[in-house]
Amino acid sequence: MTVDAESTYPPCPPILRGMRAALGPALLAEILHSRILLIGSGGIGCELLKNLALSGFRHVEVVDLDTIDVSNLNRQFLFRSHHVGMPKCVVASEAALRMVPPPPPTTPTTPIQDDATTAKATYMPHHGNVFDNARFNVPYFQKFAIVLNALDNVAARRRVNRLCLAANVPLIEAGTAGYLGQVTVIDRPSNTECYECQPKPTQKVYPICTIRSTPSQPVHCIVWAKELYKLCFGPKVEDSMLYEDEESLRAERDGQGDGDGDEKKNDDGGRTTTRSDMSKGEEEAGGGGGSTYMDAIRDLRSLIGVDSSPYSSPSQPSAVRSKAREALTALFSTEIVKQIGMDRYKTADRVPVPISPGVDWVDAIPPTTREGYTPTDVWSPADCVSEIASCLVEVAENALTPDPTSPLPEFDKDDDVAMRFVTAASNLRSYVFGIEPIQSLYDAKGMAGNIIPAIATTNAIVAGLQVLQMFHVLRAQLDVKSGGGEGGKLKECCRYIYCLRDKTRKGYLLQPTSLPDPNPDCFVCRNASVSLVLNTHEWTLDMFLRRIIKKELGFAEPTIMIGEDIVYEEGEDIDPSEYVANLAKKMTNLPGGGAGHGSVLRIEDFTQDLEVEVSVSHRDRWIIDDEGEAKVDDREEIEKFEIGGKKPTVSKENDSVDAKSNGNVANSAASSNEGEARTEDTNDSDDEIELIEGDDGPKLDGIDDSRMYADSKEESKKRTLVDQSGNGTKKAKMTVDDSV
Amino acid sequence: MVQRAHSHDDVYDRQIRLWGADAQKRMMSARVLYINLTGVTCEIMKNLVLAGIAAVVCDDRPYPEAVREMPCFFFHAEEMEKAMLPESNEGAEPDAKKAKRVPASVASVIQPKVDELNPLLSGRNSIEERALASLSDDYFSQFDAIVASRLTVPEAKRISSSLQKADVGKLFIVTDTFGFDGCAQLDFGNSHTYRRELGKDKFSDLLNIEPYISMVDMLDVPLAGVKSRWDKEVPRTLVLHRLLMDYWGYCKNGKNNQMRKFASFSDEWLSTNNLTTVGESFDLTHMTEIADHPEMSPVSAVLGGILGNEVIKSLTGKGEPANNIMLFNGLDGSCRSFLLNA
Prior knowledge:
The complex is a heterodimer of chains A (about 750) and B (about 350).
Chain A: H1 3-7, H2 17-23, H3 25-33, E1 35-39, H4 43-54, E2 59-64, H5 88-99, H6 115-118, E3 122-127, H7 138-141, E4 146-149, H8 154-167, E5 171-177, E6 180-186, H9 208-212, H10 218-233, H11 246-257, E7 263-265, E8 272-274, H12 294-303, H13 317-341, H14 359-363, H15 381-398, H16 416-433, H17 441-448, H18 456-481, H19 490-493, E9 495-499, E10 508-514, E11 530-534, H20 541-552, E12 559-562, E13 565-569, H21 580-583, E14 600-605, E15 610-618, E16 623-626, E17 629-632, E18 642-643, H22 664-674
Helix pairs in contact in A: 2-3, 3-18, 4-5, 4-18, 10-16, 12-13, 13-15, 15-16, 16-17
Chain B: H1 8-11, H2 13-19, H3 21-28, E1 31-35, H4 39-50, E2 54-58, E3 62-63, H5 77-84, H6 95-100, E4 104-105, H7 106-117, E5 126-128, E6 145-148, H8 153-166, E7 171-178, E8 181-187, E9 193-194, E10 197-199, E11 202-203, E12 207-208, H9 215-220, H10 236-253, H11 262-272, H12 276-279, H13 284-292, H14 297-316, E13 325-329, E14 334-338
Parallel strand pairs in B: 1-2, 1-6, 2-5, 6-7
Antiparallel strand pairs in B: 3-4, 7-8, 8-13, 9-12, 10-11, 13-14
Helix pairs in contact in B: 2-3, 4-14
Pfam families (chain A): ThiF, UAE_UbL, UBA_E1_SCCH
Pathway (chain A): Protein modification; protein ubiquitination
Keywords (chain A): ATP-binding, Ligase, Metal-binding, Nucleotide-binding, Ubl conjugation pathway, Zinc
């Protein structure tokens, strides 16, 4: 606007004059120079890229492995519908680069500027996984002034957190869910809390018997229906929780009887658990031993081409419908009658009512092809049966195509057949067990796909706040460079900021708080030791490696030591065959004296500059809390462990400030319920919302996920914030399933 | 994958799961008027257009001159600077060459870009290229909400009183950002009603905005006496916003916009309004720069997100509206609502 003002500074692209006015020319120059790493180019990432480009950042690299989906278009505004299917980071980087202002023109008074400000701006996409240690490692992270997280899952966030801690690069972390969000800054020299100082809610694991026999909530039926999907369409029928053979049926009967009425003292704090009456009557039951439905399911699988070669002769739709009716009758009538006969529901509030599909039901026009159908319709039992029959007919027809796209071997919420099948099967089961409400396809999709709502405004808010935090970080770095003192001062200028739906008592919708101190028990940033309880006679090193070291503790290339003995290691120059023999050994039989009760293991991972001591305790009896009832934990051995040490654990629902665990009661409830004790800060003055930017269903990689399900009930809590502690500090406690 | 037309339900799925199908329906039948584009109003427009709310842009200022400094992704800096050529250096010898270019309004240049942002709104967006002053009073009441930047106090009052005459209960926002700060003044309309959110799918009975103060009355409140339970004196950001509204109005109306520097204008304004003590906390050298170059991208983004939510609240009647000032401080990242009451 003013000619005078321009002459006092070097030339500046007009679009950056506001930046220069607010930040000063020195900090603006720093911005033009800095190299920034952005992890994620989805909802928050698109907003960040726009802000970075319009703020003058010229050197940005973007890592993302995702591709564009139609449901992204309501907020990920750098994408258009013709981009669907393309890599997010590539499309987003190109779009952002076009927004970067051209370098300032050189003038007689400032003829030369350094390369970094005049060189062509680069917004470089890396279509890849941040877990790829060959590309994204500590030396790579060290090239950047700041790392920005715009991720939608806990695993990747943990990875970036560790690399930033190891590389000593400040990390600006953000997450959103619906209207809620938060932004924080993690900087090791500034002694801030790291991403892993506080426990993250993980997916809820349901007891097998709840899913197989005693469902009481819609989500139990959804989980069951997804298992039925696996049973009907999965590559291996025995992978489904519903799979039955002589052996599994016998094991189930024996398992129910085992240890009946026993009382046992546990070895962690002496709490006493009592077996419920529930399973007492089951020994004498038992029935004929054969499965009521497996024969029909096997016939069905061959009939629709899942188990036969794709070029075999087509099945008649009428044959498929007839077999479908047989299988559904077995599942929803014969099996239910059998369970009732086993006195399974003697103490239950209500006894299930079997449903026998009529002949006309399987032949009827399914609800989704009727006129006026909408995804929010609620289906009757007959509707559900005709829908399942039509899904099976479709699959049978599709099996003849050379490259069948349906059904997918794994359940996918975005696959039409899969969603119709699961909705119908889940609702039929809800009708049998009298569980309400019956879910529309739309609702079932939200629950089965674990969909977290996401909107443009919240993403814009947190991304804007992240860039404002960047200015503080760059200013501090500039001060250090120009001799203005040491680093590690980010607590003075940066804030942990909550984005809220309902204003606090003082009217705040964006509530800043100071950056929290690290949790002294954090094994990531404080090298604190971790205590672990499991059955050392049953667990093998392989189980320990997969479930605890990799999945739970997030090690990428671990070296495991007992005393001075290396019992396992992996990495580039290591021959994996050397330790194969150890992997099969039980924990107690490992070299170096074994990892029995009271032993300490040392785990190192040089790719993340991480080392931790694991103190092992042995326990051989496991009790699980099922809706308030204590039962013998019937999950697989690999789900039976407690981790965390002395710290109190998250209570079951974690939905209010009152649920703060402060002693043994909450601790035992949580650990027995989840099988994985998670820890929580006991400091009541802290506010905590942990949110994630989430689009997609659970991405569970590796390891056995067959028993892991998200508890979609948490969805309903998203907007329920506990507000107003009285001093204007936001008390927001919530649980969002962090597993997308 | 076969390319197919993407339906509303697919594109809007993640937000319908948040605010429900009925709210989405209301939003898709609404039109919001944007008067004078700035970084913050463009951010609001982006958020709302993506969500399925049609936009009408009223901005007759010349492109690119009026938006050259505006941090907004609709207009690319490189394109704008090209459009400014063939001048050799910015600011020099402007008049003769500018006259050669066909003058385009900001509204006409942004129109295709807005349409492209959300093809599902095709045919529902439009522009208004007439000058604000030439629009009749009843023009404003046809919109479901109005979002404006760079308004003078008389302009804001005129729009407000024409909305009051119609008594449509529609939201009118006047917002600007300056440096790290941003401010919005919100008038939800006297007859506006809403439901408070009490949990998932649970809402209160219909409520009125209480107390209701129209934009005209808000702009007439003498700032010097303003207090609240948490504020011993009027918030600094609100004072700055009103000072800048008057300063920008003064620059716009003055034949020579550099007749008087911001510093002397501000001194006089503060003393006229009995705000000299508040003004003592201002860094005037810094503020002079900011008054002439006020916008930064991230500040626009945050306030644009917050105000986008307020517009959605007003269109759907769900959620407690911010009554009646929104104050954003980009230095600490705080944003709060403040009740300006006589």
